[in-house]
Amino acid sequence: MKTTTLEEITENLKGVRLRAGLSQMELADRSGVSQTYVNFIERGIRPITVDNAAALMSALSTALVEREEARQKIDEIVERLFPWTEADERRLRERQRKLEEALACE
Fold it and tell me: Does the pLDDT at position 81 exceed 90?
């Protein structure tokens, strides 16, 4: 199992925060640190402490799980509203094949 260093957390914080769909303020509120501190960490101005890294990672992991659960619920609703049949799948594969053939000829 790979361990993550504090430097790696600092380097990746903004990308993970954005993937979680959080603003700096939302991450700060969830983790109990100030928005200014989150900003300084992301910009490499301030070093991150172990305690703050743990708080930020906990907040981010919770947000990512919530986002994934919401995505799954949306997928379930879409599937119920717009059922996808085998015939639809075959038509889509055929269209993709024709498009790939057309692109290959260019």
Answer: no
